[in-house]
Design goal:
This protein is an alpha/beta fold. It has a single domain, classed as 3-Layer(aba) Sandwich (Rossmann fold). The protein has 6 helices and 10 strands, in the order H-E-E-H-E-H-E-E-E-E-H-E-H-E-E-H. The strands form 3 sheets. A 6-stranded mixed sheet has the order 4-3-7-8-9-10, with helices on both faces. Strands 1-2 form a two-stranded antiparallel sheet. Strands 5-6 form a two-stranded antiparallel sheet. Bound molecules: guanosine-5'-monophosphate.
Length: 198
């Protein structure tokens, strides 16, 4: 998605060979117009998949997920990283190791909002080693629902997540796919292809 790639080039900060900071439009301050375009694109990619629900994880997955939910006209459920006092009934949980924080959290959601009839689109901001996505898949499967696919805003293709998920037979659609973060620069996969074709 050109608009997103341009924005990453302009405002993304490469913190290391593995971590990209996008605090100015996605992870802290959020750009609603960009989020709307992201939601529209994700909804278009999964328009024919009879999605009944979107599942994401707090907090940075919520903005793209809600916008996709608006275009697909389906509810959005977000998994919690901490169990709220009010979330007591029929809780389903999975363990997720956080790539950026290097800690393991139990994520959970109420079974009340997912059932066997649901076809779920999972959405998240980043895909790195796939731990968050795998945790969300576990939650959906525990509820007896189907995973129709995964929509990602920024995939770091040099990490293993996309490969692991695709090997499991899961459809992964990423709007920006980063080939490398070497030397402080963001290089997208399609840029590499274009370069080779020159
Ligand atoms: P994974 O579970 O795929 O290893 O990592 C995905 C999660 O870690 C995402 O939910 C995202 O919050 C966080 N994450 C992974 N890599 C990055 C990164 O380079 N930048 C930012 N801002 N978040 C990341």
């Amino acid at each position: 998605m050109k608009l997103l790639e341009d924005r990453i080039k302009k405002d993304g900060k490469v913190l290391s060979e593995h971590v990209l900071k996008v605090d100015s439009f996605l992870n802290h301050q959020m750009d609603p117009v960009l989020m709307q375009e992201i939601g529209k694109e994700l909804a278009t990619l999964f328009a024919k998949d009879e999605i009944t629900k979107i599942v994401t994880i707090e907090s940075s997955g919520i903005a793209p997920a809600i916008m996709a939910g608006l275009y697909l006209n389906v509810p959005v459920v977000f998994a919690r990283k901490r169990k709220p006092l009010t979330l007591t009934e029929d809780l389903i949980s999975a363990a997720v190791h956080s790539f950026t924080k290097n800690e393991t959290n139990e994520i959970s959601l109420s079974k009340k909002y997912l059932d066997e009839q649901d076809r779920v689109l999972i959405i998240d901001d980043f895909l790195a080693n796939g731990q968050a996505a795998l945790g969300l898949i576990q939650l959906v499967q525990q509820a007896g629902a189907d995973v129709a696919g995964i929509g990602i805003v920024i995939e770091k293709s040099f990490q293993q997540g996309a490969e692991i998920l695709k090997e499991m037979g899961i459809r992964v659609e990423s709007l920006a796919r980063i080939q490398s973060l070497s030397n402080g620069n963001v290089t997208f996969i399609n840029e590499k292809v274009e370069e080779l074709m020159k």
